[in-house]
Amino acid sequence: MTNDSHSVQIIILNGAPRSGKSSIARAIQEHFEGPWINLGVDSYNAMTPKRYLPGIGLRPGGERPDLEELVPFFYAALYESIAIHASLGLNVVADLGHHDSYSQPLGILSDCARRLEDFPVLFVGVRCPIETIMQRRDIVQEGRETLYLSATEEVPIPEPVQRWQDEVHRPGIYDMEVDTSVLTPLECAEAIRHQLDLGIPEPSAFERIAGVR
Fold first, then answer.
1. Fewer CB within 10 Å, N side or C side of the chain?
2. How far apart are CA 7 and CA 174, in angstroms?
3. pTM score, two decimals?
4. Phi and psi of 150, rounded to 5°?
């Protein structure tokens, strides 16, 4: 392996739960050349003690201020781990749901961007209409049976789901976006590969975000 920071690739997929991020990450791992390590929310939370969950998956709305003081440290540790993997020549794809809708702004995304300033990062917004997300929430996934709120006749779109939709794409600065309601995970992955072949735009999304205070 190599420690040349410009010979590796880092892809950060950002979107709401059930928007299709994990499926795109798997497609990248299966179809892209070389080893791609997934350091996303699911893998990180699997290492997080249960009493501190949902950890970096803490949803918008400031519902758990008792956990918020730890979230920036969790994210910092995750992004430092991404940097270490990349410095060793390992490509990284991370499917995450960044937002700043806590009980008070925490500025996590800009801090994370600064931690990867020595590496090329493609920041991808994973879009999906809320109607499609609600349909996906009704599909039972093994091990996730109680993870997602579903629609009811009285509440067709639960408030926490709407908050994710409203907050996860702020500020909405991306290198590219994909819509998983019109593209399959593999098609999204191929669009991402095409952008990587063209090159990450300059200045990159993370370079612009890192300058946000």
1. C
2. 22
3. 0.90
4. -110, 165
